[in-house]
Design a protein that fits this description.
This protein is of the alpha/beta class. It is 36% helix and 17% strand.
Amino acid sequence: MSASTALHLAAEIGGPPHYDAPHYTALAQLAERGTLDFVTLGDSFARPGLDALAVLSRVAPATRRIGLVPTVTTTHTEPFHVSSAVATLDWVSRGRAGWSAEVSTTGAEARLFGRRPAAPAVDLWREAADTAEASARLWDSWEDDAEIRDVATGRFIDRAKLHYVDFEGATFTVRGPAIVPRPPQGHPVTVIDGTGGPSQDAAARHADVVLVRATTPEQAAGIRAEVRRRAATYGRDPEALRVLVALTVDLGDAETVSEPGPESGPRLAARGSYYRGGPVDLAELIGQWHRGGAVDGFHLTPITPARDLERIVNGTVALLQHRSLFRTFYPGGTLREHLGLARPANRYALAEGRA
């Protein structure tokens, strides 16, 4: 199975707030046993809970292969700090980090910081796109071999291989260079929900993984084609995007009996991207949509994480593996390798002919 046709699976491990690291570690380890590409941990300034990026930095040493993708809100957050924190997660996980960009639109969230009022979503997603661009430049501001660590000469860094990024966005400027060396993946994986609205442009310009919501495989295929078309207009390779259907799953029900006919097989609930049933039917749905070429995979949000993630791994994933539709081992050590994505070249080394 080629990288472009491989099925990709990810899962959310959030839910009601927990204040003990072992809870999240156990869920991530369970997902890793199922060889899922990555887990996400949602976060928001609008609700109480631990910081997702810090939690996954704690989870990283207790896992070996699975990708770790926290939600990072770019509103009210310094882009330089966002870049440094995500790069740090990539280092402590040895190349398994990503980040899911999100914005904060409410006045209540703005008052938590007291620095500026709430703004329209379209402006905030433009700022999020600027943050993604500034972060990518900061990650490149150290060339891969910029560290010398020569005890004899006392030189730690080759300063010719550090670069000012001099980024100017609509709401901030960043000079750089970064304070964290270039991450193991070059650029940690960027995930953006790009179903529609103001986030879609940011997804097309900067995301490696785009999450979409669709109720039919035809709708999913149409959204994926549009996201890829937009990406191509920005000079990106559209085949380098991974488009995953975001699906909330409730696996507390029994399996259904499929009726014969062209519309046979498991279906989504009437309210949209929500599945309720058993793990076998979920495997059928995933297999049908992927075999039809509609999507690159699924991002599953268990409605009851402790119960449903176990049924996803030991039921749905096990059946997909038995049918040779999903891998049984990780193809590499980094999240980019799981997703079949190349490690980006360093833009500054390329400009100076050193790449």
